Amino acid sequence: AEDPGAADVFIAFTRYSQGPLPEDLLEVLPCPALLMWGTEDPWEPIALGRNFARFSCVEEFIELPGAGHCPQDEAPELVNPILQR
Q1: Are the C-beta atoms of 62 and 82 separated by less than 8 Å?
Q2: Secondary structure in 3-state letters for the chain
């Protein structure tokens, strides 16, 4: 957060002002995808994640109960075993 330009990156992310949207990327992703989504994400509702699961590249959509927006930090005990398999 203290690096030069960090604030600009955060603002660009929150405004979606740069780069493609996930739905644009998933449409052309050339490899299989696994999506994990926290059921309690306050900013990106689980319904949005379920909608992304419709793309043909998504082989598996996993709901992480009780996890929020950063499940890898909030619930590594759920995320890590999935990544390890």
Answers
A1: yes
A2: CCCCCHHHHHHHHHHCCCCCCHHHHHHHCCCCEEEEEECCCCCCCHHHHHHHCCCCCEEEEEEECCCCCCHHHHCHHHHHHHHHC
Question: Could you list the mean pLDDT of each consecutive 10-residue stretch along the chain, which spans 85 residues?
Answer: 81 71 93 97 94 96 96 96 95
Close Cβ partners of 57 (under 8 Å, ≥ 6 residues apart): 26, 29, 30, 31, 32, 33
CA distance 33 to 55: 9
